Amino acid sequence: MLKSNIFHNQISDISTDGIAELVQTVWNAEGQTGGEINIILVDDDKMVELNRAYLNRDYKTDVIAFPLSDEAAESFEGEIYISVDRVIENALHFEVPAHVELRRMVVHGVLHFLHYSDKTVAGKERMTAREDHYLRQFELS
Question: How far, in Å, are 12, 89, 125, 126 from residue 130 at the CA level?
Fold first, then answer.
């Protein structure tokens, strides 16, 4: 069984209800089993700091997924950092509730752990389609 933890340090009042179950749904549906994924909600400043320190990028981003275990590990471990500032801005832009946008970003991070990539147009389209699929599936459950 996959263990999911959500850390937010009271940075936002966006509902995180159902996030652990959503992570489990995506993980299992993609053929994965156990492990541990931590979801850490931060602000834009922290995301820029992480981007600079680990990815040599000097800009804001919405999601960064760090696998903490290697491919050969018996059990997967990873951390998904999500900018609450980006969640709120994207939610306004796409005219969706903030908790829905947060769920999309969580699914996006999990998909990165499963080797989905958004570096190309085709890859981004594929990832977005999977995000949509899991968000619809989760809303129906």
Answer: 27, 22, 9, 6
